[in-house]
Every structure is written in structure tokens, then in C-alpha cells.
Amino acid sequence: MATSNSMIAPSKVALPPNSDEDVNILSMIYKICKKVAVVGAVYLVGYMQWSVAWLIGPVILSVIRDQWRRENEYKRNLAKAAALSSEKDVVLARLSDLPSWVFFPDVERAEWLNRILLQVWPNVNHYARSLLKDTIEPAVAESLANYKLNGFKFERMILGTIAPRVGGVKVYDRNLARNEIIMDIDLFYAGDCDISFVLQRIRGGIKDLQIHGMVRVVMKPLITKMPLVGGLQVFFLNNPSIDFNLVGAADVLDIPGFSDILRRCIVEQVARMMVLPNKLPIKLSDEIPTVDLRMPEPEGVLRIHVIKAENLMKKDVSMIGKGKSDPYAIITVGAQQWKTKHIDNDVNPKWDFWCEAIISSRKCQMLQCELWDWDPGMGIENDDFLGRCSLDISQVVREGRLDTWQTLQEAKHGKVHLRLSWHRLSSNLLDLSHAITETQLVKTGEISSAVLNVYIDSCRNLPNARVHSRPDPYLVVSVGKKSENSAVQMRTDNPVYEIGYSFLVQNPEINVLDIKVLDQKTGNQLGQLVYSIASLLRERDLSMLTQPLNLQKSGAESKIILSLQLKILKEAVKEVDAEDGEDLAAAPACELISTSTPSNPDATDASARPELATDAATRLTNDVELKNINDKDHNTTETASQKSIPVEQIIKTEVSQDQQAPPSDSDTPKLVHRTSSLTTSAGEAGLGRILLSLRYSMQNQTLFIVVHKIANIPLKDPTNVPDPYVKLYLLPGRSKDSKRKTIVVKDSCMPEYDEQFEWVIPLAELHSRQVEVTVATHKGFLGGSPNIGQIIIHLNQYDFREAKTLWFDLMPESTPRD
Predict the structure, then answer these.
(1) Is 122 exposed, middle or buried (0-12, 13-18, 19+ CB in 10 A)?
(2) What architecture (CATH level 2) is domain 455-564?
(3) Is the pTM of this model over 0.90?
(4) Where does this protein have compositionally biased stretches of type Polar residues (predicted)?
(5) Does CATH place domain 592-809 in 3.30.10.10?
């Protein structure tokens, strides 16, 4: 054996050199073939006398595609590393996916929950396969068919070994009913899934699937027997962010256009399942009626009026080199979406578009408005992006009505004009006449006066569509122009649906509820119910609970079992009371906490005056006029001396002139915050002062800065009044993408802007970033330096659990180190 081993050993030692030689030869052959292909392509272009664009075009597209894929791959790798690491490793590595409990003390760690998810993940794989095949696949195929992409079908569905990760859990204990528990979960999935599909006879796959969003779990009702909770309601508060990588033959289509369409279709299907107002109910006890979990429970209605936009970007190119845009707007609230008509050749379009959103969680839901330039295409969207803006619905709730200009983000310039109003729900019949009158005042769009909640339990004794064959029934539920389709129940004449819908009703005295029962196999109608909504006006609390009603155009014994509830829209009012003060203290983790400067300088603590704090907070979180507040401050401080406050506080109490500001870190520039004062009107450096609002949204991980106004810019030459504007950069790493700029105000030393800007910044990076704010003038070349003054805002000096509005003294321009 020793001899044989000694004989084998030399041969093993001799293998690596031969292997290296083979690799080198293959590598050389590959390089020769590659050079021949490149030279041959160039020769072919010249021989055929083709345009040079045939050569340059593919090269440019290839470079752009590679760059786009490298950026996405880098983000996916970071996310996957965060998903695989422990909490300690994530924090030490300072990755962008730091859990929320690091910064928010009311959010608890959830390592125990992550270990449970890892243990049960193999079992979840089996459930996910059936969910993808039975629910997601037909819905995605239907959505892709709208883009002329047919034949979508899943072939292999493996979710891999990496389980979802919970970044933090918050359980609410205030302002809740006694029979429920509400819990928010910061859920993040960056797995090693392997999903293959067929589309247009092209085989492809999805890998590196990532989903991130805030999931709410409502446990209700609480019962006295095990498991102590009757059921769960699971849903995303807003649309989650979804990303993935296409592989296989579909890798050729992994370009921004096609991948965006596929991503949009997937987001739509997730939204239909479990993004508000849609919920995923899970029944845990047979003692609890299913209607308690599945009956819709809206909190109110948000009425949206998209009026117009101004100064949009020009995306179209005309024959003379100048073009405009054909803009339209897309409004999104959770799973609800509306689209305006497009206006041809106009960068200042007027839509006058009305829509209404049913709101199920007014404290957490967001309104998003995207503007696009319409371009005719061949089925695949090629519209150009013009910018977007987002707004907390809680701001509208506190104000009742809100008229605002929102500056478009991710755009060079442009803003959109929105009017919003909040309508609560009432069971008082006396409110109906006023609600109907209000709907008649709107001439350009249909608005509602009530909300109809429908819960359909089941159908009984449906007729057979064919002899000796049971039907495959599904429901089409309609009120007015809106229709909803239920899932198909296979081969049964007693289908159980247990589904709930909410419909907006223009006039309950006229509108009807129409329910059709159809057979999927034959398309024949198995029964129909036409119910007059006016009948509910005679019911107690405007409700009808779990009643069997006869189906028309069906058998004598055919029935449908349902529950109905009508709620009347109550006019918008400003909700400022003691309860709102409690709401601020118990606001969800996703809410933009907005506590601000009281308008009365004598108030020493905004938290002690909840009505002032709430009112001021709403004004801060929107682009609204602060003129009255500033005038009041100006009048009360005419005889005041110089004041200064700590950096981390909102302006509160006047201090004497000889009292100095607290010492600051020597490595950071000094920022001086002042209230309005005539004696120091031009600031410490005599360059003027600027009023800014700062806030941070944990839900969207977005920093918002509102540039309100500039005060007392020095006028050195009365014949040369400046044209001031404000430009902002996110530091370190000043880049074109992080630049924001206000409009230019002509000939003014006291310009007012009220423009809001935003940057997406992960929680892990927030306290290491700065914002450079520079005031400049367009008359710089004639009147001196183009920059008037500058401030550097170090974000680590602020507690962003509170929104702040502060005056900053403009200082001489400096060049910070990135």
C-alpha cells in the first residue's frame, strides 16, 4: 500500500501544472476570439457602410446597463449581509439596515422572533409555494397581459434558507380598545430564493428578492380561553419596497424599463392582498365570528384635489431642439391608486382632478404623488419621470383642510398644488343632507357622501351551470362605477368567501349594491342581488348584520349571506383637542413626530400646551404660510435683547443679552439659533438669517427640510438689490443628486419660499451626515460674490423624534471636508 501511495502521489502533484496550462491555453484562445470578434464587428460596419451609431449605440447601452446593475448588486449584497448577520455584527459594521431599536427607545429588540422565524422558515416554504402558484401567478399574468406580455407562469419556487429579519417591534399601550393589541414590525427580507418562470416562451428566473416594509399586526378580540386571542389582522401600512435580480434568458430584459414593469405588477399583487385598506385575516378561535376579523373598518376618507403643477421639467424634444412635456399625475394611498389625464405640451398643467381615498390608519398612512411625462409606446411604458412628493395623512387629519404647494423631489424643478380635506365617519342620519349638499358643490368630479362596508360570508344552494357538474362560482360586487372580483371557489354549489369590501357611495338614497354570482367555466350567471342602499337608512345604526337574502335569477333556495354597514361622511374640521395631545405622545413608530415652536414666546414648554404643540406641529410638517406666526414673533420681540438657545432644543424661553450660547464641539462649525429681534436682525455675522424646519420620517427613512424665509439680507448698494435663492447639499460627498434649490425671488432682502426638500437617508447614516445650506444671488457678477452666506447643519446635534423650526444665522462661506 505504501508503494502504491508513493506511485499515486507524484501524479497528483503533477496535475496542478497541467491544469494551469490548460486554463492558460483556454484563456488565450478566449482572448483571441474576443479580439477577432471586435475587429470583425468594426470591419463589418465599415464594409456594409453602416452608420457609426450601429457601433456606438450598443456600446453605450451596454455600459449604462452594467453601471445600473452594479449599483443594484451593491445594494442587494449589503442587504443580504444585514440579513445574515447578528444584531451585534450589523451595528458594528454600520450597515444601512441598522434596526430601528438603535435610535428609537420605544422600539424593542426582536432577536427572539428572528430565531423563531429561522426555525419555522422551511415550513413557510411549502405555504409560500401554494400561495405563489394559486394566487400570485394568475394575478401577475393578468397584469402583464396589459403590457402585451403573455404566458407568465411559475415553474420552480424555492425561498431558500435565509429567513426574514425583524428590525424592531413596537407594541402600543395608549388610546386602544381594551379588546385589542396593536404591534408594528419592521420586516426585512433579503433571501437566497430561487424562482423560475416562463414569459413569452422565454425562461427566466428571480434571485436576490428583497422586501422591506412596516407590518402591523392587530390581535383582536381578546378572549378568556386559549389562545387568549380570537384572531389576527396582518397588513402593510404602506406599499413595501421590493427589489430583485433577473437571471437566465430574462437577464437580457433586466433593464430599467422591463424590470420596473415586473416590479410594479408584483407590488400591485402584494397591495391587493395585504396593503391598507386590504388586510390578511387569520382566525385563531372558532368562538369568534369571522365577520369580526374581515369586516372593513375604515377610520375616514381623505378627499384629494389635484389642481395644477408649475415649472415642470421639459422632457420632450421637438424639431427645433426645444420641447415641453405631456404631464399627468399618479396619486397613491396604500393599495389605492388614481391617474389623471395627460395635458399635451404644457409644463404648467391644470388637471382639476378629484379622488377620494379610504383611510384605515390615519396616523401611519402616506399620500404619494408622482408626475410623469406621457409618451406613446408599444405596450411597454416609456414615460419620463418628472418628480414626486409625499405627505403624511396625519397632517391633514389635524388641520381638517390643507391647501399646499409641494416641491417635487428627484427633479431639477417643479411643484404641484394639492388641496386635501379629512372626513370622519358618522352613523348619525342627520349628517347625510349636509354630506349630499357638499357633493353637489363639486362640478368637475364625482365625490361621495358615505362609505358602504360589505362583508359576504357565503352562498347557498347555487344552481348547477351544467348537468351533473358543480359550478366554479365567483362574485362580482359593484357600487356605482367600482367593482371587485372575489376568488373562485372550485366545484361547489355552497361556496364560502368570507371577504369584505368598502365602497364610496355618492348618494345612498339612489345608489344600489349589485352582486353577481358567475360560473368561471361557462361564464353563465348563477344568481344576482340588487340591494337598495336606501334600505340601510331605516336600520338601527345604519347596519344590517349577517342576513341571508334571496338571490334573483336563481333557484328558489339560493341565498347569499352578508352584512352591511353604512357610514356618512362628516364635514372636515380641525381636530385640535386634548386627545390629539395624547396622540402625539403615543404616535406610531412610522409617524412623523411633529412637535414645534409655540407661536407665543411666553410659553416655556410646548409639551405643556398640547393644543399649541399640535397646531404648530401641523404647520411645520407642511409647506404652509407661517406669516402670522412670524409677525407675532416680530411684534413681541421688538424691544427684546439678543437671545440664543442650545442646539438640540426648540426655541423656548428668552434669555438675557449677556447670556452666551452653550459651548459647541471644536470640530464642528458654530450654529447660532435666534428668535426674531430688531437689535440682531442681520445675525451674528451681519449676513442675515434663515428660517428652516427639520424633521425625519422613520417609516420612509427620509429627511425633510422646509426653507421658509430669509430675513434681513444686507443691502450694500441700494441700486443693486439681490435676487436670492437657496441651494442645499447633503454632505459628505457633495454630489449633483443630493443638490436641491429653491426658486429665485427677484429684488428682495426678505424673500419667502416655503419649499420642502427631502433626502432618503438610512437611520444608520443619519447621525453622520450634514446639510450645507447656502444663500446665493443671481446678481453676483454685478454686485460682488454670488454667495451671500452659508450654514452647515450637523444632523447628529438633533433629536429627530421631534420636528423643529429654527432661525439660523448666516455665516461666511466655508469649504467643509467631505
Answers:
(1) exposed
(2) Sandwich (2.60)
(3) no
(4) 654-666
(5) no
